[in-house]
Amino acid sequence: MYYLGIDIGGTGLKAGLVDEAGTIIARKSVPVDAKHPDFDHYLAEELASLTKQLLFENDLSVNDIPYVGIGVPGPCDDKNGLFLFAPNLPVRNMELRRLFQEQLDIPVRLGNDANCAALGEYRVGAGKQYSSMVLITLGTGVGTGIILDGKMWTGCNGVGAEGGHMVVRPGGLECGCGRKGCFEVYASASGLIRMAVEQMRNDKDSLLWSLADGAEENVTGRIVFRAAEEKDPTAEKVLDEYIDVLSEGCLDIINLLQPEVVVLGGGISGASDALLLEPLRERTYGRDMAKYSLPKTTIVKAELGNDAGIIGAAFLGA
C-alpha cells in the first residue's frame, strides 16, 4: 500500500509518495505563485500535476493509492472539501476537493498543516510510542496539533487545536488574529527576533550586532542562539524571556489536556538542548496541576523535520 501526501506552504508545494511504514520513497516540489489571477484553479491544477508526476515516475496509477491527502496552511473543512482561509495565500472558501477532482478523479482528504505535522510525528516520529500528544511548531508563527487517544482532534468544525492563539500576555502585543498577547506573538521565531532587536538597541556592544553584520534586518533565531552559546549577556537575556513565555504556553496546554508528550517542532526546535529543551523542562516540570500525579507529561523534540507535514497528510485517511 502506498499513500500520497502534499504539504501546501506559503511559498511552495511539497508532495511525497509514502509507504505503509511512513517512509517517503519519492518526492517532488514546486513554488507557489500567490499572485496568480485565478489562484483557486491554478492551485488545484498544480496539486493534481504533482500527483500525476509522482505516480507516473514510480510506475503507479490512481488505483494504487486510496486517496490524496493535502495539508493546508489554514483552517479547512474536510467533510465538505473546503480550504477555508490562509493568512499568506489568496484563499477564501476554496472548493479544493471539487477542483482537484476535476483534474484527477480520486478521493481527497484535507487537514490543517500543523495537524498533519502532528499526525506524522505521532505515526512515525517523536510521538509514536504514545497515545496522546501535542505538537507545537515554532516557526514564523506557532502552530499546534493535537492527538488524543490515537486520533487527531480538530473540534466540532475542523478548526480546533489553534494553540498559537492562547493569550499568554493579557493586553500584550496585537496578533494577526486580532487578539492581544497571543502565544504566537511571543513564542514564534518572529517573536524571538523582535525581542532580540529590542534588546540590541539597548546594547550596542552585543555580539548580536556583529553576527547580524550590523543590521537589525539580518537578525535570525539562529543568530540569537549562537550569541547565547558565546555567553553574550543580551542574547542570554532574550532567551531567558523567550523560554519563560514558551514555558507558560506549554503549561497552559499541559494543564488543559495532560497529554503524555509535548513535541517541539519548527526551526527553533533545532537549537541545542542546553539552550532550549533543558531550561524549558526546568521551568515547566512540576508547575502544572499534575505535580502530585503520575504519569507526567514529558517534553521532547520533533524527529521528522519538514517531512512531518507530508507524512501526516499522507496518513489523513489511513
Give an overview of the whole structure.
This protein has 318 residues and is α/β, with parallel strands linked by helices. The chain folds into two domains: 2-119 and 308-314, Nucleotidyltransferase, domain 5 (2-Layer Sandwich), CATH 3.30.420.40; 129-302, Nucleotidyltransferase, domain 5. Helix content is 35%, strand content 21%. The chain has ten helices and 13 strands. The protein has helices spanning 39-57, 96-103, 113-124, 183-187, 189-200, 207-211, 221-229, 233-257, 277-284, 308-314, and strands at residues 2-8, 12-19, 24-31, 68-72, 76-77, 82-85, 92-94, 108-112, 133-138, 142-148, 151-153, 261-265, 298-301. The strands form three sheets. It has a five-stranded mixed beta sheet. Strands 11-10-9-12-13 form a five-stranded mixed beta sheet, sandwiched between helices. Strand 9 and strand 10 (142-148) form a beta hairpin. Helix 5 runs antiparallel to helix 8. The chain is globular, with a radius of gyration of 20 Å. The model has no long low-confidence stretch (mean pLDDT 95).
Keywords:
Nucleotidyltransferase, domain 5; alpha/beta; 2 domains; 318 residues; five-stranded mixed beta sheet; 21% strand; 10 helices
